[in-house]
Design goal:
single chain; alpha/beta; 4-stranded parallel beta sheet; 4 helices
């Protein structure tokens, strides 16, 4: 089993060295719309390079607010298109390899079957459609 962390904070070179020395093999980092209230959550090129140079793999997650789009009412097709384009732009900016996954977070406990099979599934299907339309090979 591999050892890793997830963080919404920018990792400094010192943080990365400490993680590597502690046996960390991967880090989950975030893409998000620039309007996020936590701008340091967004993975930037320098941090991605430093992680790569240390031999730490990066897994990327798109999240805005408490989930991809925030509250359930914000999980619209329009917001899914926006979120997909932001994720693709940020993946390109940090040099994320084509064919590697971009995860999308809906970080809440939705139990209503109608919501899960309707709104949330539609959101993810729209994100996938944009990836295909943009000709990008990033599986969700």
């Amino acid at each position: 089993m591999k050892t890793g962390i997830s963080t919404n904070m920018t990792l400094s070179a010192t943080n990365i060295t400490n993680l590597k020395n502690a046996g960390c093999e991967f880090v989950f980092r975030y893409y998000s719309d620039e309007s996020t209230h936590v701008p340091e959550k967004i993975l930037r090129l320098d941090e991605a390079r430093n992680l790569g140079d240390a031999g730490i793999q990066i897994a990327s997650v798109y999240e805005l607010g408490g989930g991809a789009g925030g509250a359930i009412g914000q999980l619209s097709a329009a917001n899914a298109r926006r979120d997909a384009r932001v994720a693709l732009k940020q993946a390109a900016a940090v040099g994320q390899p084509e064919g590697s996954a971009i995860y999308f977070a809906v970080d809440s406990d939705y139990t209503d079957e109608t919501v899960v099979r309707g709104t949330i599934l539609e959101y993810f299907n729209t994100v996938a459609d944009v990836f295909v339309q943009e000709g990008r090979n990033y599986p969700l």
